[in-house]
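pasting for ref. prot 1 ->
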Amino acid sequence: MRVLSMIATFTEVPKIIKTVKDEFGLSISASAVNAYKYSENYKPDIQKIRERWGSDLMNVELANKRRRLEELEKIYHHSFKTDQMKNALGAIYQIQGEIEKDLQNIGHQTNYQINIYKDMTETELEEERVKSLERLKILKQIPEIKGE
């Protein structure tokens, strides 16, 4: 099962061979690994493992934006302390890129809203305003939104 798991997570054949030797004390050949990899018998198992593994992104530490920013901040401070200004500057640019992604997304949402409303007549705009106010009234009745 360990071999199938490693195949499913795209581990390279030499690494699989080494892991099997280290963990189980067994020697396995590249052709044996490839036999598992391309076997019709094991394809469904490999696919199931791969789907589970691929859908579990939030358990990868650096998939979390805050965690990435914290690591970039550590890199910046270490690089600055050790006078590696090129690395420090690189970390700053990466942090800036992470933050600007959010700002760009907000900008796109705003532009989208403006484009929706720019072609409306005054009457349509007023109807939309009234609908929005009605939705707000309904939302304010929900305890989580009221702050209860």
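and prot 2 ->
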Amino acid sequence: MRAAHSFTLSVEVARAIVGEATNRGLRTDDVLAGCGLTAALLADVDARVPAQVLLRLWEDVPRMLGDDCFGLHLGERATGVLSFAGRIFAASATMGDGCRRLLSLQRLFNDVHRVEPVEGRGTFGLRVRTRHSPLPVPAHAIDFAFAWLVASARRATGRPLSPVTVRFEHGRRGDVAEYRRVLGPVEFDAACNEMTFAASVLDWPFAAHDPALLEILESHARLLFARLPEAPTFRARVRDAIVPLLPGGATIDRVARAMHVGRRSAQRYLQAEGTTFAAVLDEVRHRRAEAALAEQGVSIGALASALGFADQSAFHKAFVRWTGTTPGAFRRAARAACSRPLLTPPTTPAKTRSKTGVNRTLSGGITAVAMHARRSGG
């Protein structure tokens, strides 16, 4: 099962980048070696790729090709790029129908950044905010997404579709004339990434509309959705980032830096999930302290240091606050508990006992350790 912090994207994006790199003269092995992607994973059309791998590809391939407009050039090819999304889009009835289907399936392609529909006076469009994203978004990736949608819509309608507005959060880059050629007039350093079209475009019919194909593709999409892990929370990512930083002091600045987000953004994301950095740090320290004391193999002083406390006294106070007992009393109770069976003999055959029942018994045993420690004192 995927770790909570490991955001993923569809392998189709990686396949598109690597394919373009190969077509333009780079060796596939060189491209894969640079980002840690394997040929086996690339060959699995339904696979998910860690977001960090995609970040490396978006950074490395344009640099290796010397193409400052790589995302635009990849997106405008349309044919063969993002084949699954492309087929669903092209088989839709109209531009509006195609955009609606893509929005409903977006987590299959990217479970990091949310694309929102926007409506204006006589316009409709798509918006994605990435400036304060939990993960950085390369400018090439946004360029690609916008260029791909425009090129795909032109191909599907057979008409010279042009956006009304195109805005990018990233600054001016590459040859601005290329942006105008592919997308029309563009605005850089905007508050968000946004592309809008005239509302009348929603009703433009698609030449290859195919209800039967859509039924097959969306049935497959449902299978892919069923395989997706639960959407990761920012709190879980913070917990994972805290652990290796504990010995040297897991401050919010150090953790945010390790996660590639700003301090304020980290605080805002945690607040949105109803918690704070201090609460998450406390939770991590509490869990690791109890586990370490139960295992008996480390001194209390060493444990205090490993958890990032200034001294043993600070750890002692924190542990009493968490559990109502001292570290020493908790350890003695754990030793006493280990000297007698925590689990009562099953009254039914082992094969019929539920895993939940065993887990509850184990949890009861840990709870008993803490209760015994409080009764016996520190």
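Residues 295 and 334 are 8 Å apart (CA to CA).
The beta strands are 8-10, 48-50, 115-120, 123-128, 165-167, 193-198.
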